[in-house]
Amino acid sequence: MKKRLLSIALALLAIPFALRATVDDALSFAYEAATPYVEQGFTFREDAWGGDLGVGEQKAVAAQLFKGNDYWFCLGTDADNATLSVHIYDSKGKLVESKNWQKGRFAGALVSPKQTGTYYAIVEVKQSPQERTHWALVYGYR
Amino acid sequence: MSLPGNLLAREPDDKLNASLMRITFFGIAIALASASVASAESAPARIDLSQFPAAAIEDVVVPVPSEIFNVLDKLGSPNWKGELRESLGRQSGNRAQVALLLGTVIAEGFIAVEAEDSGKVKDIGREVLELSKAIGVEKAVVARSKAIVDKAEAKNWPAVRTELDGALQDVRGAMIELNDEDLAQLVSLGGWIRGTEVLTSIVRKDYKPQRAELLHQPELLNYFNRQLENMSPRLRNSQLVSQIQKVLNEISPLIIEGEGRKISPESVERINDMTNEVVVSITSADA
User: Fold this and answer.
1) Using a CB-CB distance cutoff of 8 angstroms, which residues of chain B are in contact with residue A103?
2) How large is the ipTM?
3) What secondary structure letter does DSSP report for B59?
4) Between chain A and chain B, how many beta carbons pairs sit less than 8 Å apart?
5) Contact between chains at B214 and A66 (C-beta distance less than 8 A)
6) Which residues in chain A have their CB less than 8 angstroms from residue B44's CB?
7) What is the pLDDT along chain A (142 residues), one digit of tens a residue?
């Protein structure tokens, strides 16, 4: 399950309900992390990314960002006591986020692109009691 | 959506206003108080993206037109009404054409929102339903279509924008559910082509390098090309899809920026002409 959530919707139909619920829950938590920024006028896309990772594993999520917008990337997991992080890099691998926070199952990063182009959100499971930890990432723009 | 205030932390924000103090968001206030315990854990200042195996990199998500229009609005006041197409186009019965057309119509919805043209948005809401019906995914967008019309009636533009974004995702999701991932990609592609046509139209009328920079979308072009390459031969070889692939290949070198290179007015005009031709082909029932 390493495709975008939209794409994995079908695959989810084929797996046990309990496992499916964890991905859905991860997305719910990602949207929870995004809620304060919605209040600040950020529009969050209904499209999202998600999957599962082992501890220490990373996923790079490509995004086309536009100079002039601000973007919040918000990450969530359904796994209790898990710790995740998200950081934003430009196409040359330079860290470009202007704000970042992480607390338990939630994490967020703000970027105001200096140039229009491709950026990468690096998602990582820092610690988790589970072998595979489900995660979901959403982004909003303003 | 309720917030687990003891779990969620965020960075301090001076703009916190009274609305955040509502009971619904009481949890946020608690989280704010504990913001200092949220770790902004250190990340390497540089990473080598080439070390990421392909399987560890997710494909780029196609931006919605609003993401680009937002920036254009900040750079000036484009004449959005003047960018609206009079006709939304006609369907030919060819599913690929209908999928592409659906993408252009949804993109038109974003333009109509910028133009604050509620009549046009309502037409678009109804047309989205019609086109969805033609390719068997109308159930997925009935509620969205109604919401688009209702919210346009109320002139609630941010909400219309959200519904259009949702309609795009719902249509694509329904197509994927029907094992029509290729058609889902064509919906996205149709939206991108119409969005790019409008973007270049606006930029060519009042060229500024920072406006033209919005066209710098190399990975997105690569992504679309990969999707087209992987489509079934029947679709890939259709006249319309072949035309689009040719145009994407011609656009790719024109949108390169960096190391002192800017997207030129000539490139903007060329891209506008090419995307306009494609939109004309998509919206024609002869496709």
Assistant:
1) 7-9, 37-39
2) 0.78
3) E
4) 180
5) yes
6) 95
7) 444 454 444 444 444 444 445 768 899 999 999 999 999 999 998 788 999 999 999 999 999 999 999 999 999 999 999 999 999 999 999 999 999 999 889 999 999 999 999 999 999 999 999 999 999 999 999 9
Find the closest chain A residue to B58 by CA distance.
A61
Let me know if A13 is exposed, middle or buried by CB neighbors in 10 A (0-12, 13-18, 19+): exposed
Q: Which of B3, B10, B11, B75 to mutate to probe the A interface, most A CBs <10 Å?
A: B10
Tell me the shortest Cα–Cα distance from A61 to chain B, in angstroms. 5
- For tokens 């001076």, the residue is B14
Strand ranges for chain B from DSSP E = 57-61
CB A77 within 8 A of CB A124: no
Q: Please write the tens of the pLDDT for every residue from B269-283.
A: 999 999 999 999 999
CB nearest to A89's CB, from B47, B166, B216: B47
Q: Please identify which residue in the block is written with the tokens 């891209």.
A: B271
Give the residue among B235, B268, B234 at the shortest CA–CA distance from B251: B268
Q: Which two tokens stand for residue B282?
A: 């998509």
In terms of Cα–Cα distance, which of A124, A93, A104 is closest to B44?
A: A93
Does the beta-carbon distance from B10 to A101 stay under 8 Å?
A: yes
What is the DSSP secondary-structure string of A74-137?
EEE---TT-EEEEEEEETTSBB--SEEEEETTEEEEEE--SSSEEEEEEEEEEE-SSSSEEEEE
Stated length of chain B: 287
pTM of the model: 0.81
In whole angstroms, what is the distance from residue A5 CA to residue A22 CA? 12
By C-alpha distance, the chain A residue nearest B74 is A68
